[in-house]
Amino acid sequence: MDGGPGDWVPYPDEPPYDPYDDIAPPEPAFPAAPAATGGSRAAPSRYATPLEALETVYGYSAFRGDQKAIVEHVVAGGDAVVLMPTGGGKSVCYQVPALVREGTGLVVSPLIALMHDQVDALVANGVRAAYLNSTQAPDERARVENAYLAGELDLLYVAPERLNGEQTLRLLERGTLSVIAIDEAHCVSQWGHDFRPDYLALGGLAERFPGVPRLALTATATPATHREITERLRLPDARHFVASFDRPNIRYRIEAKTEPRAQLLSFIRSQPEGSAGIVYALSRNSVEQTAEYLARHGIDAISYHAGLDAATRARHQSRFLREDGVVVVATIAFGMGIDKPDVRFVAHIDLPKSVEGYYQETGRAGRDGEPAQAWMAYGLGDVVQQRRLIQQGDGDRAIQQRQGQHLDAMLALCETVGCRRQNLLAYFGQASEPCGNCDTCLTPPDTWDGLVPSQKLLSTVVRLKRERNQAFGAGQLIDILRGASTERIRKLGHESIATYGIGADLSEQDWRSVIRQLFARGLLVAQGEYGTLALSEASGGVLRGETPVPLRRDVIGRVSRGSGGARKASVADQLAPEHRGLFEALRAWRAEQAREQGVPAYIVFGDATLRALAEHRPANLDGLAGIPGIGERKREAYGDAVLAVIAAN
Ligand code: ADP
Ligand code: ZN
Predict the structure, then answer these.
(1) How wide is the angle at C-alpha 288 spanned by C-alphas 286 and 294, nearest 5°?
(2) Closest Cα to residue 497, out of 512, 482, 516?
(3) End position of a domain, from candidates 190, 210, 242
(4) Residue 9: inside a domain, yes or no?
(5) Do 223 and 150 lie in a common domain?
(6) Which of 236, 262, 268, 444 is packed most tightly, with the most Cβ within 10 A?
């Protein structure tokens, strides 16, 4: 496969495939558009240098990481593929070139619901930004189109499906584009977890707008997805900027699931008062019940899933974005493109289907770089359920195999006795050292020799099958092993199985842990409609005593007993006591401003800006220039008000 950057690290067990085998390539060259009708103007370059734009618009004094190299490359007309973790600062990479080059920057972004906030944030910084999507009234759309043609827009956000239609493409051709940014570029990957068919057509932009530099950006890409992005978006000559995917401020924890809701509640209660968070569950039902449970226990929790009507969804999303300390319980329909920087935790009460999904969802915590938590409870039921879903799914064999690989990688992460972060980063092809900020680093898990219990269990499965032609799920097997005297045991005569009662030394919970781990390693499989347990080909090695079975001792609820970090996570807590009063006063002022304008608080100022204000107490407008996050426009809009708050506190 030619055309990629050349030095691909192969993705583990990646089946070789040609991405163009199975899908028709994006439409061949678009028909030539009619010549521009004239009368349009290019938006002039607003700033002479990238640094000038960065300082004046955003109030930042320096570029971060690869930002400078990326911006310079694009300003000079080059294409780029940018892999940067959430919170890494991708927006600057395309917004600054759009402000420096002549013309309007086109941003392709998949989530219509969020364009509004993205554009608001830009406008608050004095950038002339607008969007085109299906939610707009015709006259509003006409206004934006005219502004584009008149050269009055620095940035134009467009939903991908718009670019599938000739109408929008013709419009864009009549004006002047400075740069094309394709955000969430992993959506082009057909094998990925967020595939969007509309993204496939975006490769056509290469021919349609030759000479306009293009960037593809994402925070989630295995080497295979990276390759697909490069090929399908037709970026053969792009420079590749691959930042470390690490999110050092996020603490990862995965614990065994016993009573998920109670565990979740105690996790949330261990977080600083007023922490905003997202809880992911698989089904709508579970979302509703969990949100109710949390609300009943005094947590400000709301639900979000595709079964709610649009108005309710919009209201809940808006509460989450605009108010402090709201916990949203959601299916994965929620969160893509959510820019809220101060989400303090992301919790999973069901197992995600892939490491990509997990990493992207947990990545929504702590975009502001402040300490944040990723917590998950996972159990035997999750594994059995997901294996069954894959087997019963309507995918062909290749798809099932792929889903199985995704699940195996996820299970390996859950059951690892090594550093979680090391495991995660290795999955994305990046080597690292143990991190010191995940559960296994902080409290290395005990391991124990599970060979004998595993043999007892497997041999019970064998006996039931051979002697009675029966198969059961975990519950009955555990009852047999523990010598329980239930009605079902008596009715089925299971007291007479040779292994009856030989596992009384382990608790029911221990047995579940054994079964889950055997399952995760493929030493047990589920069969049939009811997911009854059966041996796999690999089980023989355990029965013969040839395959060692080191097991991880489950840790449950350790987080609720407090293990540092979490409680100190709030921004106010990190301030010296003498600055806290002013910080709180600024926060109250910000909330008032946000309410008046109907925008999220972070669009007024981020927490980092308030903290710097509280610490440095600038006395006049010039002093505000040194505060990160206060550019020219915000100094004009809020400078006097902020100075008044400082003077009064
Ligand atoms: P991403 O889109 O990669 O998730 P954003 O573009 O939203 O990240 O940026 C994440 C945070 O970092 C934002 O709060 C942004 O204001 C801040 N940021 C970005 N670049 C810089 C910089 N050069 N200096 C200071 N803060 C920055
Ligand atoms: Zn670690």
Answers:
(1) 95
(2) 482
(3) 242
(4) no
(5) yes
(6) 268
CA of 434 to the centre of ligand 2 (A): 5
pLDDT at 35 over 60: no
Query: Which residue is listed with tokens 């109030």?
Result: 59
Same domain flag for 235 and 182: yes
Contact call for residues 251 and 372 (beta carbons, < 8 A): yes
Q: pLDDT tens across 402-421, in order?
A: 888 889 889 989 988 889 99
Average pLDDT over residues 541-553: 92
| Spacing, Cα 169 to ligand 1 middle (Å) | 30
Q: Which two tokens stand for residue 506?
A: 């382990």
Domain assignment present for 207: yes
pLDDT of residue 195: 85
For residue 60, which atom of ligand 1 is closest to its CA?
24
Q: Determine the distance separating the centroid of ligand 2 and the alpha carbon of 431, expressed in angstroms.
A: 13
Contact partners, residue 544, CB within 8 Å, separation at least 6:
none
Q: Which atom of ligand 1 is nearest to the CA of 58?
A: 16
Note the pLDDT of residue 572. 67
Q: Whose CA is nearest to atom 24 of ligand 1?
A: 60
Flag whether pLDDT at 560 surpasses 70: no
Ligand 2: distance of its center to the CA of 105 in Å? Answer: 40
Give me the number of domains the chain comprises: 4
- Domain span at residue 169 reads 50-242
Give the rounded distance of the alpha carbon of 299 from its chain centre.
Answer: 23
Pocket lining: 84 vs ligand 1, CB cutoff 6 Å = yes
**Ligand nearest to the Cα of 94, by number:** 1
Which two structure tokens, joined as six digits, stand for 631? 């550019």
Ligand 1 within 6 A of CB of 567? no
* 338 CA from centroid of ligand 1 (Å): 14
The residue type found at 22 is: D
Ligand 1 neighbourhood includes 406 CB (under 6 angstroms): no
At position 423, the amino acid (one-letter code) is N
- For residue 631, give the ligand nearest its CA: 1
CATH number of the structural domain spanning residue 147 = 3.40.50.300
Q: How many whole angstroms separate alpha carbon 221 and alpha carbon 84? A: 9
Window from 113-127, 432-446, 455-469 with minimum mean pLDDT: 113-127
Q: Quick one: pLDDT at residue 556?
A: 63
Do 329 and 272 belong together in one domain? yes
Residue 467 lies inside a defined structural domain of this protein: yes
Averaged pLDDT, 234-254: 94
Which among 54, 57, 82, 92 is the best mutation to test ligand 1's pocket, defined by most ligand atoms within 8 Å of the CB?
92
Q: Of the candidates 608, 613, 607, which has an alpha carbon nearest to the alpha carbon of residue 579?
A: 613
159 SS3 class = coil
So what's the pLDDT on residue 182?
97
Question: The tokens of 576 are what?
Answer: 């010296």
pLDDT at 557: 56
